[in-house]
Amino acid sequence: MRALTTHFLPPPSLASNGTPARLRAGDSSDAQQLQNEFFPTLHVLGAAKAGSTSLHESLYQNGACGCLVDDDVDICHNGKELSIWYSEAPSVALRNLTAEGYSSLFGPRAAGVACRAYADGTPTRLHTWYSANELGHLAAAAKATQKLRLIALLREPVARHLSWYNHRLTTPSLSKWSFWTSRQASCQPWFGALPGGHAPPHLALVRCEYEHWQSKGCQRSVGNATAECWIRSQQASSSPSWIAGGIYLPQLLLWQRRFPRGQLLVLQFEQTIREGVARALDFAGLGAPERVGEAVGGPSIMLPHNNSKPSQCKQSQVHCSVVRMLVPLYKPWNSLLLQQLHRDTATGKAPRQEPAFPEFPTPECIEVQEERPPVNLSLCTPV
Length: 383
What we know:
Number of helices: 14
Largest sheet: 6 strands, mixed
Distance between the termini: 28 Å
Structural class: alpha/beta
């Protein structure tokens, strides 16, 4: 990733989004004012492949603005997430920005659009162990801690893992070759001798990650000790397990240690698909409270369908062998998650917009008698 401190070239004024003309760089008070104005207060944390990109699009459609795309600089992905969040010390780089550079990160997609709030949607942050503290440091420096609204969207973890696998197959060529090459070294003998330009079938990847996760020893107990084991395992790994990414309780506990629970809205992906996003918009300050009721009786604000990448190699159903392997792994974690969420609601800690979190649906699967062959990545270009 290129350094962020030298490449941001701000436009001459902020008139296009209704804010005053840009302040002089180098003045600490000006820098603070710009941080107060532009610091994103809405954060869609994830989970990855659980509709977080679609939820971020809903925020955009209802008055939020976000990370600006620059074709010459690797600032953000898809106009929604800062690239710097994919490093382990984003606050260090962001602190080094000039006042004008910081304010140039966020803005409207088009001139003449008034921004009611600024939003950052980086779906990996929910399960990265450092992100809660990093955002806490940045928000404190911008005097925005109490203004933050955090949203976590959780999906049944087996289906989420398959969706993530399909997503990785269709990423740009340089990324997908390097990703699967890096996995090859750590996933023998599960992958076998992969032909060049091929990825393993989903079942092979699950077997590898399952064995790696079980080797951490975090499934032998429940409660806080197990959550702590999850955190230590993520901290110790240079390539965090995407199976561990479907274990949501420790992730939420990490964020609750840094931010009050009332600032963190937890939604279920499957429920949000059915009921719409009125609750999330009200929580974000972008929707009218009276419209929350519409989410139950017949939603008028549905979750957009974004970031889907159909391709010839997309696997539409999960292998039943995967379900038999992963459901027993996730079941105790899901049970603890439900207990915690229901306790948060009963004690009034959860935001008022948060609905009762239902049990995850049982994942559907298909029996396959023979092992699927390796996937030819040249066939995985999105159609």
